[in-house]
Amino acid sequence: MPTATSDDDRDPDLVAVKEGTEVAGGMTRPVGLDRDRILRGAVDYIDAHGLAALTMRRLGASLGVEAMALYRYVPGREDLLDGVVERVVETLFVKDDGDDLYIEEHNGWQDYLMRLAHGIRRIALAHPSVFPLIASRPPAAPWVRPPLRSLRLVESFLGTLTEAGFSDQAAIAAYRAYSSFLLGHLLLEVTQLGAQVSLLDQPEGDPEAQRKTDLTLFPNLQRTEQLLSLDKSAAEFEDALENLLDRLEGVLREARNSGGEVEDLA
Amino acid sequence: MPTATSDDDRDPDLVAVKEGTEVAGGMTRPVGLDRDRILRGAVDYIDAHGLAALTMRRLGASLGVEAMALYRYVPGREDLLDGVVERVVETLFVKDDGDDLYIEEHNGWQDYLMRLAHGIRRIALAHPSVFPLIASRPPAAPWVRPPLRSLRLVESFLGTLTEAGFSDQAAIAAYRAYSSFLLGHLLLEVTQLGAQVSLLDQPEGDPEAQRKTDLTLFPNLQRTEQLLSLDKSAAEFEDALENLLDRLEGVLREARNSGGEVEDLA
DNA sequence: CAAGATCCGTTTACGTAGTAAACGGGAGGG
DNA sequence: CCCTCCCGTTTACTACGTAAACGGATCTTG
Description:
By secondary structure, chain A is mostly helical. Chain A is built from eleven helices and no strands.
């Protein structure tokens, strides 16, 4: 009987979350506050207890400080969340340890898009409770499409594709298709990941009455229930990404052959 | 100079939202309460003022009643939101007027998937502020993937594909790819739609200092800014959907030719 | 028709949220 | 030594979700 998330091969985007460096019994040491410390604390808190549990008072307490102290560094809760999103997204650019996602230098646009996709997926899996925030917070400009939430990122995306021969229209169409793909796949993957843990901390009485809705009326669901519960997210992500790249390659080749006229994805 | 959302042809999924039937000056008549009236009121309220503005007290007031009256029909706010999602999703199944999305009877699985996709898209565009709720609320079972949030729907999906010759694995892979596609595209489309209105009701002082971030450092963004602001959502949706169907068709054909062995999307 | 019982919206009240405003103590500079 | 920032605390206010008690219709039953 296969449980979720375990295939034989390891998922390279799935990295163990590192423990805090200095927390001993739950109290942190009372060194001076700092916007960056606050943001880091907020990310940690959301990772640990979920987004809904993050309140100014509790975040303050987790940093060993009263809630109002936070307001000297952060205008309010909303801006705090914006800061959290920004901070987590910027994880992409820091060359943490010997990992391979160094967005700027790349071998061809396909390699770039694959690196980028796995970089974002790694972020999503490292912070499942933060990702919905990345996905749904209103972006700076309307054409900044989550989860690619930084001007620098979009600039680099468009630059890479146009340098590779994409027309402006085609590059933008690719950008839209790519962001839709990432958002859909990762949001669903992360949601299911969160659902598993939230099912665990809700034992909910009878383990025999656990199967709340009986599926006798739904033969296809009943027959395929084990298959439906299998988690193939990594493989599906890879496959869909490959398909998208193939599609973009087709667009590029067509545009090259047919000379000048515009031919975007639509 | 093209503004967003306006192409020459009309978007068939975009229907004008009908006005309330009985509201005159903002006060509703004080007839008896009712779970369905509450849910309808909640949907209307979210459509009108956004999800964040929905509170029990305000919803009560909009129905001409105190907040606590709602608790006789709804266990609490969370369940109210669940009810809202359920109600809006069920819109799919009602044959409202002479529209063509009658999910059950169909001509081939491609036709079914296209009808379904446009049906969901219609819902998303009719209730842009509700859709994020549809997308992110924890589903009944972990394998119910938003935005296809009903057992009946998933059952019908799997039944249609398996009847058409898909193996169980292939049908489920198709279900996953399809839901990811829908979620990504529609969530982004709806987000941008909400951003436009929220930019309008925030005139924000100087119209000359409106361009908050200057793009001199981002030449690709600067050059393609008008293109980026163009809204081609409908065409892109159609194109990506077509591509997905092609892909599924390939899977089906392969499986037919190569006899029995399993070949899912991954 | 009288007398509960039941239904349903209101009132009151409590705990927790975000945050404005006043406060206070310690560090550094004149 | 005193003044003045700096920075975290205290206090206080409003709005939220919701538990609990309340009260007037309306219905049921003898």
